[in-house]
């Protein structure tokens, strides 16, 4: 377990993909019990990004749940007026806090859960397989697949049990 942050603290979130920086942004701490950290941040992209199933754009707000002992992150996405768009879930290695930086290693597998009750979309399974991780680190790959299943189960429960 990590050193718990205080509500109102700011932390830099560093999302890594295969040891390279994917994105870095500052977020406000909403809660932290030492294992489960909840932060809020505006959309960190410089431009809108249309995935086909959702569009992230300036003004969107992400309430993000990271765990220091779980292999995923859950991000609730709302538009500028507060209307929920859905949940973007990343399969990751457990988050590691190094001082004022939270490092999160993305393992490619994702789950999008639309707010309208539509079916969850499992994303990037082809990227995960192509990454070579399943061959290099079979135990990590097994944890990643299990995390994707765990996220689907959380989604089925409406993300009511994130604690």
What name does CATH use for the topology?
FomD barrel-like fold
Please give the domain count.
Answer: 1
Radius of gyration: 15 Å
Largest sheet: 7 strands, mixed, barrel
Structural class: alpha+beta
Strand content range:
over 45%
Distance between the termini: 15 Å
Write the element-wise H/E pattern from the N-terminal end onward: EEEEEEEEEEEHHH
Could you name the ranges where pLDDT drops below 50 across 5 or more consecutive residues? Answer: none
Average pLDDT confidence is 94
Pfam family, one: DUF402
GO molecular function, one term: hydrolase activity
Organism: Catellatospora citrea
Protein name: DUF402 domain-containing protein
Task: Explain the layout of strands and helices.
Layout: E1 10-17, E2 20-32, E3 36-42, E4 49-50, E5 55-56, E6 61-67, E7 72-78, E8 84-92, E9 96-98, E10 101-114, E11 121-123, H1 125-130, H2 133-136, H3 138-156
Parallel strand pairs: 1-10
Antiparallel strand pairs: 1-2, 2-3, 3-6, 4-5, 6-7, 7-8, 8-10, 9-10, 10-11
Summarize the model shown.
This protein has about 160 residues and is α+β, with helices and mostly antiparallel strands.
Give a structural overview.
There is one protein chain. The chain is α+β, with helices and mostly antiparallel strands and 163 residues long. It has a single domain, classed as FomD-like (FomD barrel-like fold, Beta Barrel), CATH 2.40.380. Helices cover 18% and strands 46% of the residues. The chain has three helices and eleven strands. The strands form two sheets. It has a seven-stranded mixed β-barrel with strand order 1-2-3-6-7-8-10. Strands 4-5 form a two-stranded antiparallel sheet. A hairpin with a 2-residue loop joins strand 1 and strand 2. The mean pLDDT is 94. One of its GO terms (molecular function) is hydrolase activity. This is DUF402 domain-containing protein. InterPro entries: DUF402, FomD-like_sf, Ntdp-like. Keywords: Hydrolase. Pfam families: DUF402.
């Amino acid at each position: 377990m990590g050193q718990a942050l205080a509500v109102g603290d700011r932390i830099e979130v560093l999302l890594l993909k295969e040891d390279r920086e994917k994105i870095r942004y500052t977020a406000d701490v909403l809660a932290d019990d030492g294992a489960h950290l909840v932060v809020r941040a505006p959309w960190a992209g410089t431009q809108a990004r249309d995935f086909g199933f959702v569009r992230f754009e300036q003004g969107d707000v992400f309430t993000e749940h990271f765990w220091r002992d779980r292999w995923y992150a859950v991000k609730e996405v709302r538009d500028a007026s507060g209307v929920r768009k859905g949940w973007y879930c990343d399969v990751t290695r457990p988050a590691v806090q190094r001082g004022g930086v939270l490092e999160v290693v993305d393992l490619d597998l994702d789950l999008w859960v639309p707010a309208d009750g539509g079916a969850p979309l499992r994303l990037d399974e082809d990227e995960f397989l192509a990454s070579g991780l399943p061959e290099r680190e079979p135990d990590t790959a097994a944890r990643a697949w299990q995390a994707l299943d765990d996220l689907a189960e959380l989604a089925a429960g409406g993300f009511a049990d994130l604690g």
